[in-house]
Amino acid sequence: MASKRVICSVGYLSIPPFTTDPRADDVADRLHSVAIRLLRCVRREDDATGLTGARLSALSVVVFGGPLTVGQLAAAEQVRSPTASKLVAELEAVGLVTRATSTVDRRVTEVQATARGRWMLQAGRRRRVANLTSRLADLGSDELAALDRAAEILEDVLADRDPDDP
Length: 166
Prior knowledge:
Helix content is 58%, strand content 10%. By secondary structure, it is mainly alpha-helical.
């Protein structure tokens, strides 16, 4: 009798592979690990902002997805509304976002980024990209082309997902 592959086993919990192709499971596992390491490396650049990771994440959602309600921000950040409301208050206190009455429904208050909030997020992105650029600088043209193609493939794979799915 053939045994089933298991990609994770913790105590009584076993998680079976998600596909019948072992290579897809292995590639997904490696991509997951590399993505986490990559984000940890470039995230060090975020220390220059003086904001916590949660505040930067919320600001990013507002900059790229706003204006939006606190409830929409909470859903995007996968937190409860009181937590999102606290984040908005903290960002508002340092001048990175403002609250304004919706032009569509005057009963609704929306959160939008200020010019300073947009600038801070864009400056952070430039620092993270520069960090990654320096790590890629010694790669040859074939390696860079392979990474570029891999990025295209990942963009296509992720584009098929629900837009509300982070």
